[in-house]
Amino acid sequence: MKLIENFYCIQSVNFADDIKGISSIKTELVRPSIKLLDVEYSEKKTYTKNLVAKSCPVYDQDFTLDELLFLSKTYGFEIEEDNNLKGYYKSILKIHKLYDCPGYITLMELDEKEYLRIEFLRWQFDCQPRGAGEDMLGEDITYILGIWESPLLTDEIIAKIKSGNQKSAYLL
Q1: Rounded to 5, what percent of the chain is helix, strand, coil?
Q2: Residue 15 CA: distances (Å) to CA of 7, 18, 120
């Protein structure tokens, strides 16, 4: 397992002015599109899933609390039980009060190699006036906790991540 600290990033600040350049993990970025440096590939698949667990998983694709604890210890994020839903655990990021939703784990298959990205999303402002178009884009600030090459994952965790949403965008 190798931590990738820097990557090429295009930040979509608004529809006219993109910011392009090298960025690093543990940084807040505005609607980033990410390309790993020195990684060439002809085929890519990405799978994304919320970093949450239920003490009694309802579906086979839900993370168990033990799996979420394993991911938390391996990749360095905190978890807590939801205040309103007993037995529902979520990943948390305490660097800003607006990070109030669980993070995401993304498994990327680039040709024959696997990469893992963990990120948290938030709105830029507490009382941000948003139009319907902006709301459709989702939260505008992304905190990249880390990106790892050849991540340490169990077969069960990989299967559960792959049961989430498959994307082909987001990673250039």
Answers
A1: 15, 45, 40
A2: 22, 7, 22
DSSP 86: T
Burial 79-101 (b: 16+ CB within 10 A, else e): beeeeeeeeebbbbbeeeebbeb
Type of residue found at 17: D
Residues 1-32 pLDDT 10s: 999 999 999 998 776 788 899 999 999 999 89
Contacts of residue 82, defined as CB under 8 A and 6 or more positions apart, other chains included, come to 88, 89, 90
Separation CA 67–CA 163 (nearest Å): 15
Where residue 147 falls (left for φ over 0; alpha for ψ -120 to 50; beta otherwise) is beta
Supply φ then ψ for residue 122, to 5 degrees.
Answer: -155, 165
Residues 6+ apart with CB under 8 A from 106: 46, 47, 48, 49, 116, 117, 118, 119, 161, 167, 170
Q: pLDDT tens, 113-166?
A: 999 999 999 887 666 555 545 555 567 899 999 999 999 999 999 999 998 766
Q: Give the Cα-Cα-Cα angle 142, 169, 153 (nearest 5 degrees).
A: 70
